[in-house]
């Protein structure tokens, strides 16, 4: 199939990947736009995996203040070089993450950072619910496991569905940015402030 410059432009607009990467992806998928998008996302994952061990000692602190000034978020993003930290794309990603945190109020960045007390409290509630439903112990146990998995996916920032595009998780978004930037990027920490809420 003949890959036109318009097809390459359309794919670039969808993914923000480089022109040559877009052309190569379209060639490999015989011009299938959806498959090309998936291929570019997979490559982003591969780049992210390769770069995951690198130190992220540069970065930015970005803020988001919701209209009315009663809700604010501060987030620290790390990257490998000062050059990337100063790019518009990196800062835009940081702003998007801060805005997402304002909207979803995650408990932690990843599963291993969820406080044990929070996990124990949720588990106790789910166990009580399972017992009250009168299910056999083995089924109740599976119900509790499923509910804990769902709870963690809802409260861990990296696993949450991105508010601007629910087809992607924050981890997917992060992987795409790592793929585009070509260096390791990490969400280091965040703080969410809301007037009248402790």
Automatic annotation (TrEMBL):
Associates with the EF-Tu.GDP complex and induces the exchange of GDP to GTP. It remains bound to the aminoacyl-tRNA.EF-Tu.GTP complex up to the GTP hydrolysis stage on the ribosome. Belongs to the EF-Ts family. Keywords: Cytoplasm, Elongation factor, Protein biosynthesis. The lineage of its organism: Bacteria, Pseudomonadati, Thermodesulfobacteriota, Desulfobulbia, Desulfobulbales. Residues 4-196 form the Translation elongation factor EFTs/EF1B dimerisation domain. This is Elongation factor Ts. Its main location: cytoplasm. GO terms for molecular function: translation elongation factor activity.
């Amino acid at each position: 199939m003949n890959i036109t410059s318009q097809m390459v432009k359309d794919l670039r607009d969808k993914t923000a990947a480089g022109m040559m990467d877009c052309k190569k992806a379209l060639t490999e998928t015989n011009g299938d736009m959806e498959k090309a998008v998936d291929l570019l996302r997979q490559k982003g994952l591969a780049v992210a995996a390769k770069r995951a061990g690198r130190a992220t000692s540069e970065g930015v602190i970005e803020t988001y203040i919701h209209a009315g000034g009663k809700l604010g978020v501060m987030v620290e993003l790390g990257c490998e070089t000062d050059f990337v930290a100063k790019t518009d794309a990196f800062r835009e990603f940081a702003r998007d993450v801060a805005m997402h945190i304002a909207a979803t109020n995650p408990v932690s960045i990843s599963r291993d950072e969820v406080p044990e007390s929070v996990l124990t409290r949720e588990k106790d509630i789910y166990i009580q619910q399972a017992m009250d439903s009168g299910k056999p112990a083995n089924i109740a146990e599976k119900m509790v496991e499923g509910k804990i998995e769902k709870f963690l996916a809802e409260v861990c920032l990296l696993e949450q569905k991105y508010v601007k595009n629910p087809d992607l998780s924050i981890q997917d978004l992060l992987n795409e940015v790592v793929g585009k930037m070509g260096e390791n990027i990490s969400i280091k920490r965040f703080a969410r402030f809301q007037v009248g809420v402790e």
